[in-house]
Structure prediction request, 817 residues.
Amino acid sequence: MYLSLDWVKDFVELPKSINYQDLGRNLTLHTVEVDGIEDQSLKFNKIIIGKIKEITAHPNANRLRIAKVDVGEKKLLQIVCGAPNIEAGQYVPIASVGAILPNGLKIQKCKIRDIESNGMMCSEKELGFGDDHSGIMILKSNAKLGSNFSDYIKFNDIIFEIDNKSITNRPDLWGHYGLAREIAAFSNLKFRKLNNNFAKKISSNKKNKKSQLEINIQDKSKCSRYIAVQIDNLVIEKSPQWLQNRLLAIGIKPINNIVDITNYIMFDLGQPMHAFDASKIADTKKNKKEIIIRLAKTSEILETLDKQKRKLTKNDLVIADSKKAIALAGIMGGANSEVDQNTKSIILEIANFEAINVRMTSKRLNLRTEASNRYEKNLDPNLCELALDRVLDLIKKIIPQSKISSPIYDENHYKEKKIVFNLSKNWIDQKIGKNIPEKEIKKILSSLDFDVLVQKKGKDMFFKINVPSFRATKDISIKEDIIEEIARIYGYENIDAQMPQITMKRQIPNLELIFIKNLRNILSNRAHLNEVYNYSFNGTEQLKKLNINAENYIKIANPVNNNQDLLRQSLIPNLLSNIKTNQVEYPQINIFEIGSVFLNFDGQYPKDNKKNSGYVPHQEKFLGICISDRNNKNISLELKKILRYLDLNIEYIPIAKSNIFDKNTKTAQIVINNKEVGFLSIINNQIKKNLGIKHEVAVAEFFIEKLLEVYLQKGDNQYSGIGKFPEATRDLAFVIDQNILFGDFQREIKKFHKLIKSVSLFDIYTGDKIEGDKKSLAFNITYQSEEKTLEAKEIDDLQKKLIKKLKDKFGAILRDF
Prediction:
C-alpha cells in the first residue's frame, strides 16, 4: 500500500518543517513497516515547461518538424518532433537532455535525419498521465517558462511504501484516514475527525422520493450491510487534475470522474465501493431496479471489468439484477454494468461482505484486487456510513449538476460487537514495565479513538475502555492488546530494558527421556545394534503380508501414498521391511528403533495399560529390536543374548499368539518381576515368504513405560566383593521334552543350592542323535563357597543330587554322548 503525505495533511496539520525520513522511521517504530520513501518531484526531474516559438519543416522527412522552444534561457532549444498537434505559441512539457521518463526512456542529445535534437516534447502517455499518445500534452498559457513540470501539475508529494503484511490485522489502516489517525497519535498532533451525517442524509433523501430501487439480500451471513442510492444527471469525463494527481501518486490510473471518485474514497477511508450504470440494470415487472445479493448459480458465467469470462461456483457471492449477475461481491464489477462515456445515471453500492467468502473466491479465481484486499481483512460495517457521506459530497463537488434520485437504502444486519475493558493502573504498569502517568495513558487511548473513563478505587486507578468498532472486528480482543496500544504509541524506545525478575528452579528431570538415552547407549555401544528411524505409517497391504488385521488401525485422511495409509501400532512391520531391503548386502543384520505408536483399541498390549480403555486413540513409546542371520538357525538364542545387555531378570513365557502375530508364529511374553513388558517372536516361513525375506529373523518389542517401571524398581546395581575362595565350573547337558520351558528348567537349577552362584545356557541341540520330541540344553554351572575352597567330591555329590532332582521333576536325562 502507498501512503501520500499530501493526502495525510487532509486530516493532520503537519509542521511545514517536517522531516519525512523521520516520519517514516516513526511510522515503523509505532505502527506499520515502511519499506521505502519516494519524493515524487524527482519523478519529473529535468522535465520543464517550454513555449514553442516557431516551427519549420524537416528537410529530410515529411512527417517531422523542427521546433524552436523557449525554456527561459537565452538560447532557444531545437527539438525535432513528429506530433501533428504542435503550433507556435503553445506551452508544452519538455524532457531535456538527461531526463528519464516514467517509462524508463533516457533523453539524449541526438540527430534525427541529420538534424540535431536537444530534448523531447512529451505526450500524456509518455509522462504517465494517461493513454493519449496522439499528440503532445498542451499546457495552460500561465505556465512559467523553465519551471519544473512537477511544480506546474503540483506533483511534488512524498510517498511512503507500507508493507501490507504489517497491516494484515489492522483493517482500519487500509486507508489514509486510519493512518493519519496513527500519525496524529504518536506525533502528538490534532486529528481532524470526519463528521458522520449519515442519519441526516437518510431522512432528507427519503422525503418526496419514490422508491426506484429494491435491495434483496438473500444470504445475510455473507453480506451484513448493503447501502445503495441512485444518482442521475451525470456527465462522465476526466477527473479534475487534483484528483488525478492523488490517484497517480499512489499508483492508481485515472479512468473517469465516477470511477476515480469511488477509488479515491477506497484509498481515503479504506472502504471499497462500486458504481453500476443504472441503464444497464434490468427492470423488474414493477419498473424498478432490483439489486440482489445472492450466491452464484453452478457454472454461471460473469465477464468482469478486466474482460475475463469467469466460471462461478455455488459458493461465490455475486451482485445481480433480476436477470443476471452484474458483479463479483467485494472483488470486481461486471463488464455488463460498467460505467462508460454514455452513462447518465448510476446506482452506487457501499457494502460489507464476509471476509472469508471474499478471500476464498478471490483465491480460487486468482483475482486479487484493491477491494478484495480490504474486504478480506474484516472491515467495520459502520465504515459504510462515513464512506457514503464522503462520496456523495465529492460527487456533488466534482459534478455539480448531479442529483440524488432515490432514497438511500440501507439493509443493515450487522450486530455490533461491544468490547469493554476495566484495567487497573498497577496492572498496566506491571505489564509495560514502566510507570506511565494516567493522563498520558488516557491521552494515548483517546487519540486512537478509544472511549476512556478514569476512576479511582482505593489506592489504584482504573480505566474503563470502550473499543471503537473499527478496532473490534479483528484487532482488539483481549486486555493485553490495550497494553500494546499504550506501549507502541508511548514508544518502546522510551521503556527501559530490564531483565525479568523470576525465581529460578531446578528443572525436574524427564526420567523417560533419560531412560531412552541410556537404552540407546546400551543397544548401540554394548550390544552393537544399529539404530534406524522409520516413518510412523504402515500400509494396509504391508500388514496383510504379516497376517495382521488392520481393522482397528487409525486411517489417514490424506496419506502421502497408498503404502502409508495407516498410523502404526507396532515398530516391527517397518523393521522387517528394513531387513528385506538390506538382506542382499549384509548376511547378518541387528537393528533397533525407539519410536511412537498410535493405539486405537481396548486390550492393546500391554493388557494393564489403563490409558488404553474406551477406544480412545493415544500415542505411546515402544522399543523394537529385530535381528536376522543368513545361516544361524538358532536366531532366538542370539536375540536373548542381546537382551541380557539390558541387565534385567528377564523371563520368557510362551503364549499362543501376540497382539501382532497369529498362532502360527512362535511367541513368548517377556516378563520382568512378574510384569509383562513385551514379547519375543520368531518370524515363521510363511511371513518371510510374503515379505521376501531369506534370513532367519527374530523380533522383540517392549513397552517403554513398563520397561522404565521395572528399571526404577530395580534401583542402582549393588556390587559385592570378589569371593575369597575360588570358583568351580562344571558343564552339564540334559535331554528333556520339547515342551519344557528353558526358563523353568534354569530356575530350578539356580534355586537348588546356595553354592550354585550362576547358571548360563550355552547350547541347545535338536537332531538325529536324540528323539524328535526331545531337545538338549547345555548349561555352564558355577559353584562357590564363601567359607572355604570346595573339594571335587563335594561338588560331585551336589551334582548327583541335582541330576536326580531334575530327573524327578522334568524327566531330564543327563546327556553323555
